[in-house]
């Protein structure tokens, strides 16, 4: 629940900042992008920064996802503080898109550390036992 509230507050803050920075008497050129997790086609574009958050503990960390053209799995570089968000998340090295549109964050040995559901809005949400407190949001 905190993750949803945090995402809503961040979105409101970005929108308020865009309105405040807009020149008076003129429309803002372009769109304000709040964020969403891209599909497989978006992954081909390069590197994405993401934020993982745990609504129960309030912990957050940053992760970097990079497309790996030689593999069906993308590379994942979690921050050193990601174990505080979810046990083992700091050791996740790969990102796998599942047939249902969700993702698995995987350790070197191939074991999923965290399984997240298809995005509903701007974030993936954990689906495994106790994982529903974890969300993953792209930062743009």
Automatic annotation (TrEMBL):
Any one GO MF annotation of this record: endopeptidase inhibitor activity
Span of the signal peptide: 1-21
InterPro entries attached to this UniProt entry: Protease_inh_B-barrel_dom (IPR016085)
Record bears the keyword Cell membrane: no
Alphabetized UniProt keyword annotations: Signal
Protein name according to UniProt: Protease inhibitor Inh
Organism this protein belongs to: Hoeflea marina
Organism ancestry: Bacteria, Pseudomonadati, Pseudomonadota, Alphaproteobacteria, Hyphomicrobiales
